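Supplementary notes for students who missed Thursday's class. We covered one full example, reproduced here. Read the sequence, then the structure, then the short commentary at the end.
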Amino acid sequence: MGKDNTVITVIRPMPPEKSSAQDACLVVINGVDLGKKYELTQDEVIIGRSSKVDIQIDEESISRNHAVIENDGEQVVIRDLRSTNGTYVNDRPVNECSLRDGDQIKVGRTIFKFLTGSNVEASYHDEIYRLTTTDGLTQVYNKRYFLQEMERELSRCLRYQRDLSIVMLDIDHFKPVNDTYGHLAGDHILKQCAQRIVRSIRRDDIFARYGGEEFILLLPEIAKHQAVKTAEKIRVTIESEPFTFDDVDIPITLSLGVADIREYLARSNNNSGNANHEVNTFAFIKLADDRLYKAKEQGRNRVVAD
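Structure (token representation):
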């Protein structure tokens, strides 16, 4: 009998998977075509206002040939085409910039999110879901999500008899800011204002863009006197430092209205003549909103809580 021949198989570790630059796309996260996906499989993709470009956006603030995205299979680069209002990546003006997964590109008032990697399709669906809860410009919650969360918090605070306060905020004289400095400056201020506020509130607080230049803040387990302190802190945070756009400092102030669940229930019960614990979400919001407009009438840049 002959010797058995043993075959030795060498198993080499597989090289780490490389994400292909070819697997890349842009997703509109702020603009008319919200959620639309543009594949970046061509060598060049031109963005602009012209009907002859690859990604056509009909905005006055966008040049006919605004920017080009180049994909050589190894990296994806965006290059500004001497546009009038510039191309921004992650809020910074760029002439040419290599793009990384998750980068935000702003062209005019439209914002794209750049997605690349081994599973772009999954990332795209994740982004679409995120758009159902988040405002594309400011990156805080949107009105739809806020109202859903507010219903949940109202139910919880009534069940356990806990405090709950709400703050309505509005940027003062925002239309003159747009008229004087342009809508791009206005968009910049909205985003930066929202981010400053996010940094000054608690993780459990629910902050959203309610519409236009108006924001709303829900404060679980916070009584009105504490909510007033939070509102004043936000007011000072915004007033204390101007916002800078294109090397121009733009001073901004806020008007704020505050209400809490206990006074809302007291008013509601007095008006109805019986003690119940039903809450009309929009009536509660209106109580804070009325005080916001009272703050406007009293001269702006102030907090009103009664």
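Commentary. The helical segments are 120-131, 143-160, 174-181, 183-199, 224-239, 261-272, 281-297. Residues 19 and 117 are 4 Å apart (CA to CA). If anything here is unclear, bring it to office hours.
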